[in-house]
C-alpha cells in the first residue's frame, strides 16, 4: 500500500505544478493545511476518497484522470 500512496502523491504534485499552484496555495484551495498536503505528496498519508475527490476537483480533473498511471 505504501507504494501506491507514494505514486499518488507524486501524481498530485506533478499535476499541481502543471497547473501553476504552489503547495501552500493548492492546500488552501483544497481546504487542507500546507503541511498535510506535503505529507500527502510524499505518500505519508492515507487519504480518504472524499479528500481525493476534493483534490481532483481543485485540479479540474476526474478521479480516473487523477489515478492515471498510479
Report on this model:
The protein has 70 residues and is mostly helical. The chain has one domain (2-66): lambda repressor-like DNA-binding domains (434 Repressor (Amino-terminal Domain)), CATH 1.10.260. It has helices at 2-18, 23-30, 34-41, 49-59, 63-66. The radius of gyration is 11 Å and the shape is globular. The mean pLDDT is 95.
The proportion of residues in beta strands is under 5%
For the sheet with most strands, the description reads: none
Going by CATH, what is the homologous superfamily? lambda repressor-like DNA-binding domains
Could you tell me the mean pLDDT? 95
Parts with pLDDT < 50 across at least 5 consecutive residues: none
Q: Any idea what the CATH architecture is?
A: Orthogonal Bundle
Please bin the fraction of helical residues. 55-70%
Q: Tell me the number of structural domains.
A: 1
For the secondary structure, the number of strands is: 0
Order of helices and strands: HHHHH
Give the assembly state of these chains. single chain
Kindly identify the CATH topology: 434 Repressor (Amino-terminal Domain)
CATH class: Mainly Alpha
Q: Helical region count?
A: 5
Morphology call: globular
Rg over CA atoms: 11 Å
Derived structural class: mainly alpha
Measure the end-to-end span.
12 Å
Task: Provide keyphrases for this structure.
70 residues, mainly alpha
